[in-house]
Amino acid sequence: MMQYDHLPILEGRLHPVTVVFAIYNSIRNLIIPAVSLLLIESRTVTITLVLLMVTGVIARALVRYFTFSYRIEGGELITRQGILERRERHIPLERVQEIRLEQGVLHRIFGVVDASIETAGGQGPEASLSVLSHSEAERLRQAVFARMPSRTIDAARGLDAPQAAVQRVVLRRLRLHDLILHGLTSNVLLSALAFVGALWAFVDDILPGNFYERVADAIYRETHRLLKQGAQTALFVAMLSILLLLLASLLLSIIGSIVRFYGFTLSQIGEDLHRSYGLLTQRSSSLPRRRIQVLEIREGALRRLLRLAALRVDTAGDRSSDPKQKNEGRDVLLPIALRKGIDDLLPVIFPDIEPAPVSWRRASRLAILRGAIKGGLVCAMAAAAVSWHQQGLFWLWMLLLLPLIYIINVMRYNNLGYTLGERYFRTRRGWLGRSTHIVPIRNAQAIVAEQSPLDRRLGLATLIVDTAGQTYTGGGPKISNLPLEEAQSLARTLAHRAAATRYRW
After folding, report:
1. Which residues pair with 403 in a beta bridge?
2. In whole angstroms, what is the distance from residue 71 CA to residue 166 CA?
3. pTM of the predicted model, to two decimals?
4. Domain 10-166 class?
5. Which end of the chain is more exposed for a tag (fewer CB within 10 A), N or C?
């Protein structure tokens, strides 16, 4: 067991502008409630309540500023706060996965950042230090990662270079045209709907009560007027509206990509991968390479056609299901790059990875039959439901989907495969788009071979490799439609190789 010097290695407190940020956040959060309160209460009551709430927030911020402190001591990051009820939290350095820094527009004015400490298995930040000066946050991050037990052991063995020799190596830097391409090849319709939904939720409270009735009435009148002018005019207006909606969606997606990932830079500092990006809110984080649990190369349908892909990773601390984290870009290691460029980047992320496979081992061809049976059953149930409600032969149109179902399953089979190396296991799946998962075998915590009733009938099985983190990589490595004997043999091989290697936090 490592012995640590129990004298504090680093000590610090929050930046004085912590109180300023607390006042700003409280006023921002109270604007809509204050407006609503003003409509039902007198101005005097509203002002009194708002002042009381702001005073309480200021008092709480002052208490937190004067009582909060942190230090690194005995191999732990220790935070302490409170007057009447003191809270002291001990975070072992070996459990720290990432220290994320965020810097909004107001943060940049004062030269401060928000720091979030994330640990293995956490549902969110284990500790939030808001706010610190930028230099103090960088000093904290360097001190934490430099004094992890695994780093200390490597340094004692002479495996790491001296600290002075560690330099930042830029691996990828996205330009403006890359971000435009990222926006054009993203799911533009979902981006537009998300933006409209957020805008709707913001203005819904201040809209008049009859607003929706007036909009519905206006739409009905315009539709009726267009139908009176003829079917061709109505069709032209409908097609033009769809085109304008698509163009607006593309524009919103491009703007969202630029705002989120502006200045995106992926670099390597010693054993860490460092990301920094953002236009309005600048974010940065460091990820130790050895703590990457699963890596996913995701190629959407359009990106695959253009030979582009995105890179996502999961660490042991990635357990949160908050969609806001994906909106912040936390789910990507590299938003967009040429597919060949990502292959060249893999040895940097996994230094001991084997060369890319020349050929993939295929699943059973019964995968096509299995998918066709499931799709055919769905079509048959849909046809039965249509024939129940409508007379005639309209239900026969549902059967025209059967050839399409067969083609989709053939495409899925062609993209379904795996390859097993000495240290890494790779799987891929998809049909129009494709996802390739790479997992270090030492990170496998459970290997499961499961069968559905249809699988048992066909003698097939699905192999699932479970790791400590699978939040951002679509569920992690999984290969379906394997012959049962092959799935069981592969599971035993993976389990034996994982047991023969030592997992390192």
Report:
1. none
2. 25
3. 0.79
4. mainly beta
5. N
Where along the chain do its domains lie?
10-166, 179-261, 265-363+416-499, 366-411
Query: Distance (Å, rounded) from C-alpha 388 to C-alpha 408?
Result: 28
Residue appearing with tokens 């037990």: 149
Asked if residue 432 has pLDDT above 60, the reply is yes
Phi-psi region of 74 (alpha: psi -120 to 50; beta: other; left: phi over 0): left
Nearest Cα to Cα of residue 434 among 279, 309, 345: 309
Residue 344 CA to residue 151 CA, distance in Å, equals: 26
Number of neighbouring beta carbons within 10 Å of residue 289 = 15
Residue ranges of E strands in 202-245: none
- What tokens were used for 8? 């504090």
CA 479 to CA 447: how far, in whole Å? Answer: 11
- Taking the C-alpha atoms of residue 61 and residue 81, their distance in angstroms, rounded to an integer, is 12
Q: Are 163 and 142 in contact (CB under 8 A)?
A: no
Residue, of 189 and 431, whose pLDDT is higher = 431
123 — pLDDT class (breaks 50, 70, 90): low
Q: Which two tokens stand for residue 253?
A: 């997606």
